Input
Amino acid sequence: MFPNLFIAGAPKCGTTAWVHYLSSHPEITFCRAKEPHFFSSDIQGTNVAENLDEYLGLFDVTSDHSVVAEASVMYIYSRDAPKQIHELNSDAKILIFLRNHLDFLMSYHNQAIFTGYETEQSLEKAWQLSPDRSQGRHVPPDCTDPLMLNYPELCRFANHIRNFYEVFPAEQIQVRWLDEWKSNPRQTYIDILNFLDLEDDGRHNFAKVNGAHKHRFEWLGNLTKTRPGQSPSFALRVASAVRKLSGIKRLYIGRTLRQLNSVESRIADVAPGFRQMIEAQYATDRAEVNAIRSDFSNSHRRAG
Output
């Protein structure tokens, strides 16, 4: 059975939370790799599987699972992903989570620093570097693709979701804004289950998942970091050697160290002038997103 649900982003907009919420449903199984990014082949350094067989091997599928799912937040920015997913399974359903543009920028920038993709501590300065980085200048060594740090482009949600609506029928796509589902996660959960043609399993717990983090010790963060498509860190290579020598199939040294070295943090606010600029620049994007949903839905109804 091929995957039939793809949570396609955007990053820091609730994807991890919804993987957590939905994975407890008895009819849903998620890919073992948190973000396989198999279909974002046009974004460098994201893919964790070399071929389709290896990708499909990341799923544990039984007759009890009517929904086989994965979540890869960079799919929303990939020109290839919608077409390639459609080629694999034209009946697949697509979930996309978005949020207020400034909140997204602040959270994404903080996460990029945490993972090592970003080295500029100031969001305003990182924003200003975007044009240079698009030309390959001032790109941090651990950033595998400058697209990941093109902050103005990352925020153009309407352009990105349109790529999915141009490939998939509107009834196979749901776009959710974080502020809307956060105010009533239970109802959103029921709506998503209806979208997936599943019965409500009665879930009422929607605790916060994957908030802002920072490293306790930067040196340990650098020692244990890992990037898709790149060689493992020294610590992870040691863990792999120990696992092979001991015969233990799973030895989560790297993961454990990263968890112990991670603490919740509060994201610093931005200057009022930068806030006003972002709000003005993306004032119409949310309306455009909602218009795309409506236009494609109406077009499908007329065609039907």
Remarks:
- Residues 285-303 form the longest helix (19 residues).
- Strands lie at 5-7, 28-30, 67-71, 93-98, 173-177, 213-215, 262-264.
- Residues 240 and 251 are 8 Å apart (CA to CA).
